[in-house]
Amino acid sequence: xxxxxxxxxxxxxxxxxxxxxxxxxxxxxxxxxxxxxxxxxxxxxxxxxxxxxxxxxxxxxxxxxxxxxxxxxxxxxxxxxxxxxxxxxxxxxxxxxxxxxxxxxxxxxxxxxxxxxxxxxxxxxxxxxxxxxxxxxxxxxxxxxxxxxxxxxxxxxxxxxxxxxxxxxxxxxxxxxxxxxxxxxxxxxxxxxxxxxxxxxxxxxxxxxxxxxxxxxxxxxxxxxxxxxxxxxxxxxxxxxxxxxxxxxxx
Length: 251
Ligand SMILES: NC(=O)c1ccc[n+]([C@@H]2O[C@H](COP(=O)([O-])OP(=O)(O)OC[C@H]3O[C@@H](n4cnc5c(N)ncnc54)[C@H](O)[C@@H]3O)[C@@H](O)[C@H]2O)c1
Hints:
The chain is an alpha/beta fold. The chain has one domain: Rossmann fold, CATH 3.40.50.720. Helix content is about 40%, strand content about 15%. The protein is built from seven helices and seven strands; from the N terminus they run E-H-E-E-H-E-H-E-H-E-H-H-H-E. The chain has helices spanning about 15-25, 60-70, 95-125, 145-165, 185, 190-200, 210-220; strands at about 5-10, 25-35, 50, 75-80, 125-130, 170-175, 230-235. The chain has a seven-stranded parallel beta sheet, with helices on both faces. The radius of gyration is 17 Å and the shape is globular. The termini are far apart. It binds nicotinamide-adenine-dinucleotide.
């Protein structure tokens, strides 16, 4: 696997692990994030170029794609991973403000990424877009209606894009993580007690790692997935296999 790739939300967690993995596997990578500070890990890392931008802004998406084309002359892989999470209550004072921001990053950001990335990939002769969804986009979690809605929107936008861009050689798939050890869990204010309970409800009885998520993303981005488009690959330790009525057996 080699070529030109962009990863959004590459400053930390799953995005950072993916940018590192794509680069180790021969890609020239644009690591994009809204936080310049988060991108300092790219200092001195060969083949990884930092780009500071907000995925919810159209201009930043345009510049991000232009940066990849200027630097590498083509675009083969686009990983739309940037996302934010926050608890939201239907009657909370800040519920609609939070809804608008979460939708702007998690759903609008994906739409803008595809809008600007897909034509560049098509002009490069075809390639792959991987949207990072969530178990929360195919099921719902309590007290997270904004995040749940944003991830469902991102997933169906990706399916629609898979249909619209297939003829141009652009595959579009979703990798949907389950609970994974990264900073984003803090956005939902997960306490140690919550974490224990969460882990007990995961059939594999543990959280995922950013590297396990990156592997699933890299698979969908690679030629090994050449006949896969419009798919949603769950990487969730079995979470969404459950009906949820009975807890999974424990060791
Ligand atoms: N960690 C989990 O348990 C989990 C579960 C399901 C889905 N996900 C999804 O995986 C993706 C990555 O999550 P993570 O856990 O690695 O999160 P993280 O918080 O560790 O990293 C997210 C990165 O995205 C960046 N970012 C935030 N808003 C941005 C914006 N507007 N523009 C550009 N960059 C922005 C942040 O600065 C940060 O570096 C997200 O889409 C998230 O919803 C995570």
